[in-house]
Amino acid sequence: MSLKEQIESLGKEAVELIKKAENLSSLSALRVEYLGKKGKLKNILKTLGKLPPEERKEIGQLANRVKEEIETVLKEKEGELKAKALEEELRKNRIDITLPSGWIEAGSSHPVISTLIEISETFISMGFSVAEGPEVEEEKYNFDMLNIPPDHPARDMQDTFFVNKDGFVLRTHTSPVQIRAMLTRKPPIAVIAPGRVYRKDADPTHSPMFHQIEGLMVDENVTFKDLKGILKIFLESVFGKDVKIRFRPSYFPFTEPSAEVDIGCTVCGGSGCRVCKGTGWLEILGCGMVDPNVFEAVGIDPEKYTGFAFGLGVERIAMLRYRINDIRLLFENDMRFNHQFKGIR
Ligand code: PHE
Predict the structure, then answer these.
(1) Where do the DSSP E strands lie in 153-241?
(2) Global pTM?
């Protein structure tokens, strides 16, 4: 066989074998066998140097053509085999997306949060906006500027959680947000401040952490009548149009005059039961007209402006609303309890 014939038949042989290759590894073996450094084509071309220059050129060109042809076929086959391998892979690892998944438990609103949101929305609809303050609060905001002197019993170690940084406490009420609002805004002010508060207290009706919503309105000519009107709208929206409301004189250092607001017992309707301790009334919130000393502390002129403030406990209202008799149930996160509130907003 002439050199030319040898090359041509090698080319044919290679192309045939390549077309029959069944997988990528036998393909790469063929590549090495025919085109590799020590491959068959190189081997044949070893004798090229012995040829006369004319023939050498012709054979060289032929060898190049054959090499290119083999490469083309290799490429084609490689593409084909890769596609087949991918196909195979997809078939083997097929995921049936129509299979039903495992059970995923949907969460639900917490009764305290849903009550807090509903109350907030009532006030927002009356034009109040939401103000915030930190839970680790400066003592001067939590006490001093609210006209609570250093020897006031509310500061007692038994009530307040002190933190190990001088001058800071876990806020015992949302009233410090009143101070923050008056320091950063100018009258007219109408804000509510919902949030967590902390007191060293734990029994069926007290939790060391609970939620309050503070309200504050400051403007010229704000009167106790405005306070009563706003609270009436709020109480009727939460407890219904027929709710009975009673204002009782009380005392808070930061309001003067001060009052506590009771509603007719929602459990017995006023005849007396365990929930209202036989009185027919339930204490719902504290309120009053902003004390001039508080205005002085924040630099608002008490001759020009008046204001009212109120603070209510969210858990208390949630408990009445959902007939929950132990506040601890709200924080134990027992799913048998929490799941009973599925579907509330
Ligand atoms: N901060 C008072 C409390 O926690 C409630 C209150 C707020 C009373 C605003 C009057 C005015 O008991």
Answers:
(1) 168-170, 189-198, 209-219
(2) 0.71
